[in-house]
């Protein structure tokens, strides 16, 4: 009898672990299938309430470890990190999830159902919030990005930032599992928990549908250009090679300008420029801006003695050169570059534009500064790694939803992407579709104030407080049990 019970537990644990791992594998990562994430944690949470704490911890740890195999090749091959780095990163997250699962289990089995409901979403959201400040990758690993294609739900970011999206994404599986487990023993409470959770999600989606049904007529035509061939994906050396590349990009820009483009965005780190030499980029692109009345934003590596910047040089018609230095570097590739610390505003008629670079868009704080300044359009030179074009390239979309502006992002080895303040992709093209891939789009450039812009990370504070409440409840139950 005991062996049969043990076999049943093992079988259920393997099935639950495999199911959660599979849903995480396809629902998260570089190409997430967003509906899967709503159900990913249900199997392992359900198993946790039907097994011992040891089996629950083992299943949850294994499920997260296996589910993150979808990023193993990206971390080791694309980013060039050792396998041990992937193991350390994923194992740390799996340990945290095992702890969260045990907290959920302890609260649920001792009748603290409302505390159990918030344990998982509050703890995971707190973890993401802490990670945003303690790692060089900001919010890049947030589960909220799995929902970028779920536009009604994405609008929640305009109120809570990514924190609310993660919280309510994980509230759903908690509610479903609590209802499944307690519907026979505590039917009324189980039903109330499920209905309250579903009603909250319905209200969020209703808000999202209403927000999506708004439009703006204040637009600007923007052209984006990228080449995966010129420079062979590398930063071109200073001097004659750089000058040839700049002229090629200027020639491609002419065609977009002839079709009405008022701004041109070119990728980051096209070539090296030396401050001790004359600047062909300045001569070529400033002349183009002056003759056509168009603003050109081009990315370079600016070398000034021993100091190097990942820089966007901004050429406005008949105006002095402006520069923006990237704030957030990608280690180890950019560890030798000096970060900037200031934003750049480009006032235009009835519009304000801003400039950022690639990884800057992984961090809500920088985008919030642009939102506070009333920016309606952010111009973003970028450079991705081909395989992460959709994932990392689209992270920027959420910044526009959070702070009420459109984004025109031109990436080498990625996408040329234009999105609006609702997260809708208005136009998109792979950068490898032509020797010089070009995209032209009419982009809303009107700023839309948001609650997140005004209140900042308030919901992250709520998540921290709810986690503290759940832990206090767990401690109280422990003392009562003792």
Your description of this structure?
This protein has 482 residues and is α/β, with parallel strands linked by helices. It has 2 domains: 2-213 and 457-481; 219-447, 4-Layer Sandwich (Nitrilase/N-carbamoyl-D-aminoacid amidohydrolase), CATH 3.60.110. It is built from 17 helices and 13 strands. Strands 1, 2, 3, 4, 5, 6 and 13 form a 7-stranded mixed sheet that branches. A 6-stranded mixed sheet has the order 7-8-9-10-11-12, with helices on one face. Strand 4 (295-304) and strand 5 form a beta hairpin. Helix 3 packs across helix 10 (162-182), helix 4 packs antiparallel against helix 6 and helix 10 packs antiparallel against helix 11 (187-212). The mean pLDDT is 95.
Topology:
Layout: H1 2-27, H2 34-37, H3 42-48, H4 53-67, H5 72-78, H6 83-109, H7 113-134, H8 151-154, H9 157-160, H10 162-182, H11 187-212, E1 219-226, H12 240-258, E2 263-265, E3 272-274, H13 280-292, E4 295-304, E5 307-315, E6 322-325, E7 345-348, E8 351-355, H14 364-372, E9 377-383, H15 389-403, E10 406-412, E11 415-419, E12 425-430, E13 437-444, H16 451-455, H17 458-481
Parallel strand pairs: 1-2, 2-4, 3-4, 8-9, 9-10
Antiparallel strand pairs: 1-13, 4-5, 5-6, 7-8, 10-11, 11-12
Helix pairs in contact: 1-3, 1-4, 3-4, 3-10, 4-6, 6-7, 7-10, 7-17, 10-11, 12-13, 14-15
Summarize this entry quickly:
Helices cover 51% and strands 16% of the residues. With 482 residues, it is α/β, with parallel strands linked by helices.
Question: Can you tag this structure with a few keywords?
Answer:
single chain; 482 residues; alpha/beta; Nitrilase/N-carbamoyl-D-aminoacid amidohydrolase; 7-stranded mixed sheet; 6-stranded mixed sheet; 17 helices; 16% strand; elongated
């Amino acid at each position: 009898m005991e062996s049969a019970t043990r076999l049943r537990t093992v079988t259920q644990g393997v099935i639950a672990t495999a199911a959660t791992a599979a849903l995480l594998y396809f629902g998260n990562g570089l190409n997430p299938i967003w509906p899967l994430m709503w159900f990913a944690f249900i199997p392992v949470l359900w198993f946790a309430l039907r097994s011992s704490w040891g089996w629950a911890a083992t299943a949850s740890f294994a499920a997260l470890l296996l589910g993150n195999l979808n990023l193993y090749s990206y971390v080791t091959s694309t980013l060039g990190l050792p396998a041990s780095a992937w193991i350390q990163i994923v194992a740390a997250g799996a340990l945290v999830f095992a702890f969260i699962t045990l907290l959920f289990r302890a609260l649920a089995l001792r009748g603290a159902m409302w505390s159990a409901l918030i344990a998982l979403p509050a703890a995971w959201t707190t973890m993401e919030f802490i990670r945003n400040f303690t790692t060089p990758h900001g919010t890049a690993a947030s589960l909220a990005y799995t929902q970028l294609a779920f536009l009604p739900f994405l609008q929640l970011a305009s109120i809570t930032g990514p924190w609310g999206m993660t919280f309510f994404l994980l509230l759903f599986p908690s509610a479903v599992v609590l209802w499944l487990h307690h519907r026979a023993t505590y039917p009324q409470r189980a039903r109330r928990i499920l209905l309250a959770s579903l009603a909250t999600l319905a209200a969020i989606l209703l808000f999202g549908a209403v927000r999506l049904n708004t439009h703006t007529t204040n637009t600007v035509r923007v052209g984006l250009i990228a080449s995966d061939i010129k420079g062979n994906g590398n930063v071109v050396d200073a001097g004659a090679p750089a000058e040839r590349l700049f002229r090629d990009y200027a020639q491609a820009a002419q065609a977009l300008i002839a079709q009405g483009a008022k701004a041109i965005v070119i990728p980051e780190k096209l070539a090296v420029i030396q401050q001790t030499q004359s600047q062909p980029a300045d001569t070529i692109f400033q002349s183009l801006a002056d003759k056509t009345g168009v603003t050109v934003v081009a990315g370079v590596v600016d070398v000034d003695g021993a100091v190097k910047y990942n820089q966007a040089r901004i050429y406005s018609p008949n105006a002095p050169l402006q520069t923006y230095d990237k704030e957030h570097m990608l280690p180890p590739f950019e560890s030798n570059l000096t970060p900037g610390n200031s934003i750049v505003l480009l006032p235009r008629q009835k519009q304000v534009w801003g400039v950022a670079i690639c990884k800057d868009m992984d961090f809500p704080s920088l985008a919030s500064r642009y939102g506070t300044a009333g920016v309606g359009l952010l111009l973003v030179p970028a450079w991705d790694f081909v395989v992460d074009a959709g994932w990392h390239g689209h992270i920027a979309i959420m910044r526009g939803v959070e702070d009420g502006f459109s984004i025109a992002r031109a990436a080498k080895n990625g996408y040329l992407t234009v999105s609006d303040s609702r997260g809708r992709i208005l136009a998109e093209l792979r950068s490898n579709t032509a020797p010089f891939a070009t995209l032209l789009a009419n982009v809303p450039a009107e700023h839309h104030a948001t609650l997140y812009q005004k209140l900042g990370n308030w919901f992250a504070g709520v998540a921290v407080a709810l986690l503290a409440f759940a832990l206090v409840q767990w401690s109280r139950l422990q003392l009562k049990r003792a």
